[in-house]
Design goal:
Elements: H1 3-28, H2 34-55, H3 63-89, H4 92-99, H5 103-113, H6 120-135, E1 138-140, E2 144-146, H7 149-172, H8 178-194, H9 200-211, H10 213-240, H11 243-267, H12 278-300
Antiparallel strand pairs: 1-2
Helix pairs in contact: 1-10, 1-11, 2-3, 2-8, 2-9, 2-10, 3-7, 3-8, 4-6, 4-11, 5-7, 5-11, 6-12, 8-10, 11-12
Amino acid sequence: MENWIVFSFLSGLIFAIVNTIDKYKVFDSINLSHPVFCIFAGFSNLILGLLFISFFPIQDTHYTNILLGICTGILQGISIGLMFKALSQNEVTRVVPIYQTYPIYVLIIALIFLNESLSYLHILSIFLMLVGGILATIEFKKKMNFSNGLMILILILASMSMAISHIFIKTLTEEFSTLQIYGLRGIGLSIPLVLPFSSKSNIKKFYIFLKDWKSSRFMFLAETVGAFLGLVLIILALNSGPVSLVASISSGTRPIFVIIIGLFLSLIGKKIKEKFDIYNGLIKISSAIFVGLGILLVSINI
C-alpha cells in the first residue's frame, strides 16, 4: 500500500478522536463557549506556526507563495470555526459526515484547475461518500425529517472552505517543506479564529479556562497535539498523492471512526448526547457504510 494512503487513513483516525474529544470532553462536559474554543485553537496554532517558521525559516521564494500559505490557514480557520459552531450544538455523528463531504468540491476544483485524471470508479467512490454525508442529515424523532437547515448550510460552507485550502496545500508542497506549510497555515488560521472573538470578556474567559488545567488539558490534547499530528499527516500524503484522493480517504474514514467511537462509548455506559436508538443508529451506520464503500473503491483502483 502506498505511504500516502496510510497517511490519509491515519489522519482520518486522529481527527475522529479529536472531534470526539472536542464534543464530549469540551463542549458537553465542560460546556465551553464557542468563542473561547476558537480563541484557544487560534492561539495554539499561532504559537506552533511561529515556532516552526522560526526553526525552519523560509528562503528563496516569492512573497505570493507565503501569502498563499497564510491564506490556506485563513480558509481552514473559517472552516474549522464554522464546524466548531455546528459541533457545539449538534451530535458529532451528524456533524462530521456532512462536514467531510468536501472531497466532492476538491474533485471539481482538481479536475478543472489541476488537470488531475480520475477514473469513473474514483468519481463513483467520491459520490458514495457524498451520499453518506447526506444520510447523516436524516434524523428520526416521531417521524423522519432532516436536521437543522442552518447547521447544514454552515457545514456546507465549512466544507467548501476546507476543499479550497486542500488545493492550496497541494500547490504549496512544491515550494515548502511539511513543517513550513504547517507554520504558515498556523499563522493564517489564527486570524479568523481569534480576531472576531477578541472582546475583553472572551479573553478573560479564555485566560480563566487556560489556567484550569484539569479542564483545558482535553482541549490541549485535541486541538494542539491531535490536530497537529492529523494535519502533518495530510501534508505528507499530499506530497505524493493526488489531492482529490487524499481528501477522499482522510475525510471519508473520519465519519466511520466517529460513529465507531460513539457506539463504543454508548455500549460501555458513557453518558453522551447521541441518539443510538434503532432508527437513528441504522441511519448513522448506513452513512458510515456508504463512506466506507467509497474508500474501498478508491483503494482497489489505485
